[in-house]
Design brief:
Elements lengths: L2 H25 L6 H6 L3 H4 L23 E5 L7 H9 L3 E5 L12 H8 L5 E7 H12 L35 H14 L4 E3 L8 E5 L3 H4 L7 E5 L1 H4 L5 H12 L5 E6 L2 H5 L6 H9 L6 H8 L16 H18 L9
Parallel strand pairs: 1-2, 1-3, 3-7
Antiparallel strand pairs: 4-5, 5-6
């Protein structure tokens, strides 16, 4: 074989491989769950199928801070504004901002003054955090004396929730090997009886595919005997009674009442309900806020896709149920006169 023919054969083989990889990637569903994206797993198998509830656009809007009854400081579990919409529909004016917008996720000692100088003259501060990130946020807050950044909010949701199951589109923006990696990862998840773990080089966390007892009663996706979970749910450890004591001390130092919302990890709800139990007991005894651990333990068995199967967050079904619970909590702490006609 001449060098020219050898080169041509190598080129043709490489081109054919490239074309096959491109076609597989183009045909791979664009991931719409954070866990399917991190783990490079197919949303054909792990994407939710149950249509989400619809929420009126006006109920998703932030109130201006100087008109708000309630200010929320939350994380990605609050960024769609869906649970807040239940309060807004009932007539409460709520202004939302997020940990990522303030002081490297620390609430400093001058929080009351910072909010007042920003225009807040309302009646309640709600602080929301997912279980796995709370201890780190509390530790940073105990070391912080002054809020350095201005209060940031936008008119509508920081993250727009999907209003329907995404349809198929060609996956043009993915790296060329994405489709093949997704195929092999998904095939391994399908064929492995136990748990498997997948990690993308762009992420520090990993996605775990884990068997869920009675999973098809809990989730709507095709491979409903298994679901996706974030490795950080395990790696970051449990909350402790000392964390609850820090929260109690922080709330006691505020001029405006504080209501804490600690949302349990998805892994805690579906796989390991004993996680952080000592913290939950101390939190409940201190009356710092609603016991969302016990609530989620009950509600996830009654609401299909309570958490998204392909995402670490509560679904919009779960968000609206959370909103109903929080509405009752706010009503118990604020006078009913604050509710306005919608």
């Amino acid at each position: 074989m001449t060098p020219a023919k050898l080169w041509l054969r190598i080129f043709a083989t490489g081109f054919a491989v490239f074309c096959v990889m491109l076609l597989i990637t183009l045909a791979t569903p664009i991931p719409y769950g954070d866990l399917s994206r991190i783990g490079r797993l197919s949303d054909h198998q792990f994407g939710w199928q149950k249509p989400p509830p619809q929420v009126a656009h006006q109920d998703l809007q932030n109130a201006p801070l100087d008109q708000a009854d309630v200010v929320l400081i939350g994380d990605s579990f609050s960024m769609t504004h869906h649970w807040q919409s239940v309060l807004a529909k009932a007539g409460y004016r709520i202004a939302s901002t997020f940990w990522t917008h303030i002081n490297a996720e620390a609430l400093c000692g001058d929080l009351d003054d910072w909010l007042a100088h920003s225009g807040f003259h309302g009646k309640l501060i709600i602080i929301q955090s997912v279980e796995r990130n709370l201890s780190e946020r509390l530790a940073a807050s105990t070391q912080c004396t002054k809020m350095a950044k201005p209060f940031i909010q936008q008119a509508g949701p920081y993250t727009m929730a999907r209003e329907e199951v995404p349809g198929f589109k060609l996956n043009w923006d993915a790296p060329i090997a994405q489709g093949l990696i997704t195929y092999w990862n998904t095939r391994k998840a399908l064929n492995t009886p136990g748990d498997t773990t997948y990690k993308s080089g762009a992420h520090l966390s990993a996605t775990m595919v884990r068997a869920v007892p009675d999973g098809c009663n809990f989730f709507s996706h095709r491979l409903c005997s298994k679901a996706l979970f974030l490795s950080d749910d395990i790696n970051r450890g449990e909350l402790t009674p000392a964390d609850a004591e820090t929260m109690k001390t922080f709330a006691a130092a505020r001029r405006t009442p504080v209501l804490w919302m600690v949302i349990p990890n998805k892994t805690t709800v579906y796989i390991d309900p004993s996680h952080s139990t000592s913290f939950v007991s101390a939190f409940r005894n201190a009356n710092l806020g609603p016991d969302l651990f016990e609530w989620a333990a009950q509600r996830h068995a009654l609401t299909r896709d309570f958490y998204f199967p392909n995402d670490t967050h509560l679904s919009m079904h779960g968000q609206l149920e959370l909103g109903e619970l929080m509405l009752n909590e706010v009503r118990s702490r604020l006078p009913g006169a604050l509710e306005r006609s919608h």
